[in-house]
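Project channel, design review

CF: Before we commit to the Vitreoscilla filiformis constructs, I'd like one complete example in the thread so the newer folks can see what an input/output pair looks like. Taking FAD assembly factor SdhE.
RD: sounds good, go ahead.
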Amino acid sequence: MNNTPADPTVVRRLKWSCRRGLLENDLFVDRFLRRHGDSLTVGQVEGLQQLMDLADNDLLDLLLARKEPEGSLDQPVVHEVLKQMRQPG
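CF: and here is what came back for FAD assembly factor SdhE:
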């Protein structure tokens, strides 16, 4: 995973684009951004962007560990962000 600090402008745009249609997803995403938003790396931004490209129900299945990333999502950056997002409050 690329541990270079992410550009603050990219992070601000990403935070805005993370708004989801399902409240459950918003809770996971908001908690992740509160914990890590100020220190996101390029790798974390990449993983989060890939997760945000998913449909709401597919994202929720991953967040609730009903499914694991597969296909193009089966990458270390996605697994790392998903692990951080799943950590309880």
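RD: helpful, thanks. The two ends are 24 Å apart (CA to CA).
CF: The chain is about 60% helix and 0% strand.
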